[in-house]
Amino acid sequence: MGEKWVLMKTAQTPTNIAVIKYWGKRDETLILPVNDSISVTLDPAHLCTTTTVAVSPAFQQDRMWLNGKEMSLSGGRYQNCLREIRKRAREVEDKERGIKIEKKDWEKLHLHIASYNNFPTAAGLASSAAGFACLVFALAKLMNVSEDESQLSAIARQGSGSACRSLFGGFVKWIMGKEDDGSDSLAVQLVDEKHWEDLFIIIAVVSSRQKETSSTSGMRESVETSSLLQHRAKEVVPKRTIQMEEAIQYRDFASFAKLACADSNQFHAVCLDTLPPIFYMNDTSHRQVLVYICWIISYVEKWNRSEGTPQVAYTFDAGPNAVLIARDRKAAAQLIQRLLFYFPPKSDTDLDSYLLGDKTILKDAGLEGLEDVKALSPPPENGSAQKYPGDVSYFICTRPGKGPILLSNDKLALLDPETGLPK
Amino acid sequence: MGEKWVLMKTAQTPTNIAVIKYWGKRDETLILPVNDSISVTLDPAHLCTTTTVAVSPAFQQDRMWLNGKEMSLSGGRYQNCLREIRKRAREVEDKERGIKIEKKDWEKLHLHIASYNNFPTAAGLASSAAGFACLVFALAKLMNVSEDESQLSAIARQGSGSACRSLFGGFVKWIMGKEDDGSDSLAVQLVDEKHWEDLFIIIAVVSSRQKETSSTSGMRESVETSSLLQHRAKEVVPKRTIQMEEAIQYRDFASFAKLACADSNQFHAVCLDTLPPIFYMNDTSHRQVLVYICWIISYVEKWNRSEGTPQVAYTFDAGPNAVLIARDRKAAAQLIQRLLFYFPPKSDTDLDSYLLGDKTILKDAGLEGLEDVKALSPPPENGSAQKYPGDVSYFICTRPGKGPILLSNDKLALLDPETGLPK
């Protein structure tokens, strides 16, 4: 010890979208939920957090940079994660470089953390879920922690509840647990990302800068004032979770879509049953957002009815971005045709920057450029051909994706291997 | 019998607004609800139905005219009301005119019915409630029925559920009842219209022609698909009803407002929890209505918080008209200032046709004409001064009102006393 070496690990972690929603805590400090939840992990190629963690005897204090900007680690949620992971740190030896860290040394050593999202942090795409999952996963690797992903998820959970579900790929269940200490409130993988490869996930990111009702305060108010929340948690979700697990197991899209849409709506119903009701935005500059949400819901319901069996499921978190899950590539191509018909880009936006992620779907939809978008016919199932250019900022097309991975290529590290500072 | 005489009665019946909502039937034919509900009766001077019923041996069949236009009586709901009231008909004698109808004659005699609403029928202002209550009340008088208002309410209920609450003035409770035959599902008066005279009720009727999700089908879908509805009916409403009765008894406006707003929001939450969710409008021409509802709710919540104690309660039925209940004349004057600031009339509308009902409130608000409306300052409690001219079609200012009355002035009859046809 005493030398100037820097030891680093870099990890990449996906974000996730709940299809059975988490809303309401039974313990705010430990972040213990009032019900189980189920999510699908999104392909990290399109939405992920990359985090480099470094340790060095030269570091004077714990420091963190998010998207290149230093930020405070003093918050309780960061402190809880750091404390819990340090407790589990073990001996680390790099014989080649002659570095050895004893278990007891970890208490004294400081950390540098750099994190980067490949998607807009403010856009309400579960950046804190991917972020805390990546922090905990990377630190576990750096510190040679022996706990498995489920056990790590119980630590990430203390940073941000939904983060625990980002420790796995595919479909993931956050088991609420029963213990007061939260030790059994953790995530398990239901199926991996290969199990249901047909699915396509299209996210419509709306133009409005999201003005979040903080989830933490929103949940607290719902727990305190909504008489429907406890019923949902105790009676509805337990049954729905079992049904959703079955739908996922058997790739039963009709059941999956019905349950996901119903649960998204019920979560919003609980928000409306909160005093005062939570609308996700309450100033007039966000007027169009709520209308847009209702439009999407009504439209998907109408389209699904016209097809006889659901083609698309919708789900909304505590923000206006619509997450649409299509049953297969064909349905996704039809969906993107419909979305681009009703929500075309503004005239100064090209298609390449309007549909991010998996762009192969554009070819299936016969959309090679803006000319093709303009030539789209109104969908037969809807009477109205009114368009809303500019209402959507951009779309992201993605798939169910894999869980956290360690990046061995040092070039992808966000911290300088010599100084331990952001590159 | 055999002569050409016509015997008539004319009645006037108020409409009512639920402050604990009725949503969901346990029996669709008898119209038996899944929970109790409580309403306030609105002053019939501003909103009422007038109905003239006539009987004559010359009438060939039962006929009805609504607002001057003949309509069919073949619907089950009309038939149920007519059958039930005929069962209870008794001997009627008009010695002066030498008319005598035996109890058994009523089965053979036909009726003419003319009904008129002093407010727009399509505007979603509970016209069917006032209408069926008035029909049953007028027929009961014509047929010398001995049943009291509560017993009559159980008949009106079979025409339209909420009609049973229009048989009384003041605050009224519809007791859901337990019997399979519906005999104990009826309305009782909690307090009369003199009990809480401070209240002012301002209804904002929106421009959009209401496109109703039929309440009947909406309720049915909620009962079948909403997992929150049964919980609301069995667990929430029973407690809330007791609290609301107390709030009314003690004129406790803070509790009254909290309960009324919470129950309106919960009713809408159940609609959102229905599959597919009920939004009250689902085409794009009604875009602004939902936004407007959220605006009103957010605004009232904000204002109430800024005042420290609630000044105004809001409640919405299955339509976009906001019903705002102000604690007293002062709060009503402040409310009307705010409403007219944010929702001014279009330039071609004069104030007299923009605020209907009790116009004395305009003087309290210092609003003698459109010039005064234009000169209004933005309310201090709200940051935004954005106005929405044209969003509201008109306002109605009213009060808690009295129950049904018989009109003895023959000039007010809607049927010609000689022919029994509409005047």
Topology:
The structure is a homodimer of 423-residue chains.
Chain A: E1 7-14, E2 16-20, E3 25-27, E4 32-33, E5 37-41, E6 48-56, E7 63-66, E8 69-71, H1 76-87, E9 92-94, E10 99-101, E11 110-117, H2 127-142, H3 149-156, E12 171-175, E13 186-191, E14 200-206, H4 215-225, H5 227-249, H6 253-272, H7 287-307, E15 312-316, E16 322-326, H8 329-342, H9 351-354, E17 355-357, H10 360-364, H11 370-374, E18 392-398, E19 405-407
Please outline what is shown here:
The structure is a homodimer of 423-residue chains. By secondary structure, the first copy, chain A, is α+β, with helices and mostly antiparallel strands.
Number of individual domains of chain A = 2
Task: Please compute the radius of gyration of chain A using only Cα atoms.
Answer: 22 Å
Give average pLDDT of chain A, whole number: 91
CATH topology of the largest domain in chain A: Alpha-Beta Plaits
Number of helices, where a helix is a run of at least 4 consecutive DSSP H or I residues of chain A: 11
Second CATH tier, the architecture of the largest domain in chain A:
2-Layer Sandwich
SSE order of chain A: EEEEEEEEHEEEHHEEEHHHHEEHHEHHEE
Structural class of chain A: alpha+beta
Unreliable stretches of chain A (pLDDT < 50, length at least 5) are: 281-286
CATH superfamily of the largest domain in chain A: GHMP kinase, C-terminal domain
